[in-house]
Amino acid sequence: MADSFPTVAELAAEEAELQLDSFTNDDAWELGAALVAAARAEAAPVAVEIVRNGHRLFSVALTGATPDNASWIERKSRVVHRFGHSSLHVRQASRERGTTFEDEFGLDPALYAAHGGAHPLLVRGVGPVGVVTVSGLPQLEDHRMVVEALRRHTLAGPAQR
User: Fold this and answer.
1) How many C-beta neighbours within 10 Å does residue 60 have?
2) Any idea what the Cα angle at residue 148 is, between residues 142 and 149, rounded to 5°?
3) What predicted TM-score, i.e. pTM, was given to this entire model?
4) Which CATH number do you get for residue 137?
5) Cα separation of 82 and 89, whole Å?
6) What is the number of domains present in the chain?
7) Dihedrals φ, ψ of 81, to 5°?
8) Tens digit of pLDDT for each residue in 94-122?
9) Where do the H-state alpha helices sit in the chain?
10) Which residues contact 73 (CB under 8 A, 6 or more apart)?
């Protein structure tokens, strides 16, 4: 039985929970390294990218990832940049309105993909400053991998990282 997708309300609560106090280049490295460790532990064939304010701070393609993953990362990240929510949140919002992202917004699918795996980097009191994206697994698994890494990162204070 396939996993069910979270609701928009659940995804909004997740975004509220995962706000950061700050996000530095060192944070990008630590978050990226945590994602790589999690992916390696599962032998997940993923690519990971972390961008802050248009500056790519972390990018890796693990064994089994393909050049297509880079395209998925770009397309999912564009959704986050445009709508300010995770790519899965944007997908689910359209579905809850009884349509699809593609039909609702008419954006070029070669440029935008509302599929799970891209999440905004939200700094408390500032708002979105970047995006962390995973591509290579089914979209719900991509999303969960990012959320779990962000959750661990937000729970670990600077002294514990």
Assistant:
1) 15
2) 90
3) 0.93
4) 3.30.450.150
5) 13
6) 1
7) -60, -40
8) 999 999 999 999 999 999 999 999 999 99
9) 8-17, 25-41, 67-83, 87-96, 101-105, 139-155
10) 47, 49, 117, 118, 133, 135
